[in-house]
Every structure is written in C-alpha cells, then in structure tokens.
C-alpha cells in the first residue's frame, strides 16, 4: 500500500487541475483578474484548493469553500482572511498548529494531528455553491476520508459543511437512519467517527458575537479529548 502522503499528493494534484464547474472557474479567475485595491499586484492562486495538513491526522476539519480573496488568493485553506486568523489561532492554542497565523503557503505553518479540507474547492459567488457544484466536489472529500485512515473526529464549520460531511460519510457506506441536526457543539457518532458542529468563524459570526474565541477554543479542546480517547482504545492503523 502506498504511504498516505503519496496518495494524498496524487489526489491533491487532481483537485488542483479540476474544472468541472464552469461558474466557479469563471468566478475564481475573474476575482484574480480584478482583485480589490489592497491585493492588486499580487498573483492569485485562482485554482481549486487541495487539502492541507497532517496525513496521519486524527482530526479532520471541514469548511464550506475558499474565500474569493482568501484561499483563492493564497492557495491554502483558510489563509489570508479573518476566518483563517480566528481558526489558526484556535488550532495553535489546542496544539494542532505550530504557529497562530497563516498568511501564505510558505510561511512555515505545520499542522499536527489535523487535516483541513472543504466541501467545495473553488470560491463560489456570494459564498453560495449550488447543489450541483457541491456534488461535483463530493468525491474528493470521500477520497480524503478513505485515505486519512486515522481520522476519528470531524469538525464541521457551519451547516453546509455538516451536511456535506454526512453526504460523504454516506458515500463511504456510513449512512445514518436519522440525520443529526447541526448546531454549535452538536455531536453525532457515525461509524468510527464523531461528527462535531461548530459555527463558521466568518466575520458574520465573529463580529456579531455569535461565535466567540472561547466557544471556538472549546470545540477544539473537546475534539482533542475525543481523538485521544479513541486512540487509547484503537489499534494502530
């Protein structure tokens, strides 16, 4: 069997080359061609975003999609925007990241026991992918679940990610009879995984106080405890 790193690298090359959604291709490229003034002169990634992190992760973090001037610009999930500023600080506090910031792909950031992905890999207009665009990307998330064999906790940032993760798990043969509802702090056991809900660290949530730093920190502390407990009772994979 090839190592997880080699397998994920091959998958990520396929993701980066994907052009299945014409609307998303047009939007990501148009944003790169005419960025806001503060980003003019920068070279945008303007391609689908691959996953990022530790191939032996016990925690899988699932987001909605890259931000048009965040990940679509920098080429890394949750990098270069306020959502990422909140997220990586919390991951650092919980011991999943070696530094509290993520500014560009070569900034030295490393994740330990954590892998970050998204339901949709291209920045969608208005941050709203269509159902077809979601379904076009679903096989990539399914493959990641199959390859990240040590994942035991899946933290979903928002209801879109929650529903996307459930769809991916069903495609892996882990359908649930009664769909668990999303809420911040929600937990559901699906096969060997514990699914956890977390409000997305978007400015809409952080500026209004719907999501606080202590709430976000609490999710990752809880995720770490669950992962450690699962590791203590599971054989090495």
CATH homologous superfamily designation = Uracil-DNA glycosylase-like domain
Tell me the strand percentage band: 5-15%
- Determine the structural class based on helices, strands and strand pairing: alpha/beta
Number of domains: 1
CATH structural class: Alpha Beta
How would you describe this protein?
The protein is of the alpha/beta class. It has a single domain, classed as Uracil-DNA glycosylase-like domain (Uracil-DNA Glycosylase, subunit E, 3-Layer(aba) Sandwich). It has 8 helices and 6 strands; from the N terminus they run ααββααβαβαββαα. It has helices spanning about 5-15, 20-35, 70-75, 80-95, 130-145, 160-170, 205, 215-235, and strands spanning about 50-55, 60-65, 115-120, 155, 185-190, 195-200. A 6-stranded mixed β-sheet has the order 1-3-2-4-6-5, sandwiched between helices. Strand 5 and strand 6 form a beta hairpin. Helix 1 (about 5-15) packs antiparallel against helix 5, helix 4 (about 80-95) packs across helix 8 and helix 5 (about 130-145) crosses helix 6. The mean pLDDT is about 95.
List the helices and strands and how they pair.
Elements lengths: L3 H13 L5 H12 L18 E2 L5 E5 L7 H4 L7 H12 L20 E5 L12 H17 L5 E5 L1 H13 L15 E4 L2 E6 L4 H4 L6 H21 L4
Parallel strand pairs: 2-3, 2-4, 4-6
Antiparallel strand pairs: 1-3, 5-6
């Amino acid at each position: 069997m090839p190592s997880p790193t080699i397998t994920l690298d091959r998958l990520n090359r396929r993701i980066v080359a994907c052009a299945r959604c014409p609307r998303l291709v047009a939007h990501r490229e148009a944003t790169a061609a005419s960025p806001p003034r503060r980003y003019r002169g920068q070279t945008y990634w303007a391609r689908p975003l691959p996953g990022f992190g530790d191939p032996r992760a016990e925690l899988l973090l699932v987001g909605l999609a890259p931000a048009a001037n965040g990940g679509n610009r920098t080429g890394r999930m949750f990098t270069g925007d306020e959502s990422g500023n909140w997220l990586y600080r919390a991951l650092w506090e919980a011991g999943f990241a070696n530094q509290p910031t993520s500014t560009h792909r070569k900034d030295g950031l490393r994740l330990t026991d954590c892998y970050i992905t998204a339901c949709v890999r291209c920045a969608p207009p208005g941050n709203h992918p269509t159902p077809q665009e979601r379904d076009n990307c679903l096989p990539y998330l399914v493959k990641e679940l199959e390859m990240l064999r040590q994942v035991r906790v899946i933290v979903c940032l928002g209801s879109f990610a929650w529903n996307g993760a459930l769809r991916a798990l069903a495609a892996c043969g882990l359908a649930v009879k009664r769909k668990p509802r999303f809420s911040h702090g929600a937990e559901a056991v699906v096969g060997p995984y514990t699914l956890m809900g977390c409000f997305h660290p978007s400015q809409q949530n952080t500026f209004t106080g719907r999501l606080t730093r202590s709430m976000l920190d609490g999710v990752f502390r809880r995720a770490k405890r669950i992962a450690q407990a699962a590791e203590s009772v599971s054989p090495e994979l």
